Amino acid sequence: MTDQPYQLLPPLPADEYAALRADIEANGIRVPVDIDEDGQILDGHHRQRIAAELGIPCPARVVAGLTEEEKRAHAVALDDRPTPRRTPTGGGRGSTALPGENSGRSVPGVASP
Fold first, then answer.
1. What are the backbone dihedrals phi and psi of residue 111, each rounded to the nearest 5 degrees, phi first?
2. pTM above the 0.90 mark?
3. Which of 15, 41, 111, 113 has the most CB atoms lying inside 10 A of its own CB?
4. Residue 29 lies in a domain
5. 7 found inside a domain
6. In this predicted structure, what is the pLDDT of residue 108?
7. Would residue 56 count as lying in a domain?
8. Mean pLDDT in runs of 10 for the chain (113 residues)?
9. Rounded to an integer, what distance in angstroms lies between the CA atom of residue 102 and that of residue 73?
10. Is 111 part of a structural domain of the chain?
């Protein structure tokens, strides 16, 4: 079992990771990392890792009251963008598709943008 159970997407390619790192180094972390009540990261794994590498604070917000299924849906929904590394595949390793996932549904405990 992984120590990051909600890191459901493939890692960033090296060039995208470097670009994100450069942006965070220049501007800081502008979007807090989402964590559950136990401190498990739901969204923001790369931001948290980069903050640790740079030795800077990493803001976080607690997303409370979610079931395991809702935590997984939350983790995917926030990163489910149509880019080459994040395109849902509908199955297989690295897939962002979850059984019964409805991309239009809201997740309890999280305010809609």
1. -75, 140
2. no
3. 41
4. yes
5. no
6. 45
7. yes
8. 69 92 95 94 93 97 94 77 40 37 41 40
9. 9
10. no
